[in-house]
Design brief:
about 90 residues, mainly alpha, 2 domains, about 0% strand
Length: about 90
């Protein structure tokens, strides 16, 4: 919801998720790069042409969409650690 009113704030939050500098949204093409990176990292279907059109035609909505995809995909991430063989469980 806040992405529509302050898309730069939401984009800074997404950049922080990827451990990028908070000044990232100020760079030209940053939204396009974040969208492509998110799509490829999470194996989301789409093309570069579609990404370009969405970012340049409806920028605030593209930020909200990336945030929604990250929220859906990162809420179910579990860390699995191997137990050493000499440890009794």
């Amino acid at each position: 919801f806040c992405g529509l009113f302050c898309p730069m704030c939401l984009e800074c939050d997404i950049a922080g998720h990827y451990e990028e500098c908070l000044c990232w949204p100020l760079l030209p093409g940053s939204t396009f790069a974040l969208r492509i990176g998110t799509r490829e990292r999470h194996k989301i279907q789409g093309t570069l042409c579609e990404d370009w059109l969405v970012v340049h035609c409806c920028w605030p909505f593209s930020i909200c969409q990336v945030a929604r995809e990250l929220k859906m995909r990162t809420s179910h991430v579990y860390e699995i650690r191997a137990v050493p063989k000499d440890t009794l469980v």
